[in-house]
Design goal:
Elements lengths: L6 E3 L19 E3 L12 H8 L4 H10 L4 H8 L4 H25 L4
Antiparallel strand pairs: 1-2
Helix pairs in contact: 2-4, 3-4
The structure holds zinc ion (ZN) (2 copies).
Length: 110
């Protein structure tokens, strides 16, 4: 059984107004350990709670890991931070390339 390997923002910390990167502060974050779909490192609830945090650092770190659900990518594509939105646009471009390359070959006629 796969378990979520993500940290989840607690938003109970008195020292930080918004969570920094996971594990830097255990009052900002706690481990999740929820069951996940096989092959997924992080449950969707964690993805969404991280996607909704203020600050670009955690969201860029989430994107850098890859394996993010399309809903969360769509949400981050309109992020107020241009760095995050740009990163999502680049990831979606790569996914688009991967999806269209085999179809392009199928259009070849003999
Ligand atoms: Zn903290
Ligand atoms: Zn989780």
């Amino acid at each position: 059984m796969a378990r979520c390997a993500s940290w989840r923002p607690r938003q109970k910390c008195r020292r930080h107004s918004s969570p920094g990167l996971p594990v830097t502060c255990q009052d900002c974050w706690r481990p999740c350990f929820r069951k996940t779909e096989p092959g997924h490192r992080r449950c969707e609830e964690c993805e969404q709670s991280i996607a909704q945090l203020p600050g670009a650092d955690v969201k860029l770190a989430l994107l850098a890991e890859g394996d993010i659900s399309p809903d969360v990518l769509d949400y981050l594509a309109s992020d107020s931070d241009p760095l995050v939105a740009l990163e999502v646009a680049q990831m979606q471009d790569h996914q688009h390339d991967a999806a269209t390359a085999p179809a392009g070959r199928a259009h070849h006629h003999h």
